[in-house]
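S.,

Sequence below, as promised.
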Amino acid sequence: MRCTVGPSGVRCSGGFDSDYVSHYEPKPYSKRFVRHLELWYAQSHPAEDFAETFAVWLDPSSRWRSRYRGWPALSKLNFLRAAEWAKSRAKDRSSAGVTRIEPIDALKQTLGDYYREKRARLPFGPA
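The prediction came back faster than expected:
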């Protein structure tokens, strides 16, 4: 699986749609994968590789920067860090013009009414 971070967000291609195999032969000494769950689970499928890498990155006690220093797996962890940074920057830009959120008791419209009006404004018309 290959992922990139750009102005439009994170884009990943390949890997997740591959079939799961009933048996895989892990490479215990491979440094291309994080070691989070037993039995080198990250090596079993690209989706599991992503999930395990994400779990390591998300754990504040994992010390992943030092533990995986010099490993190819570090690039995946750094990718997640960059994706999170890009997302936070996009959030900062998108909320820059927002100054006030209406309190719930000031709302005069139901959620159903809001979505009916929104659908009517979209190019495909009302539902």
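The longest strand covers residues 2-6.

Coffee later?
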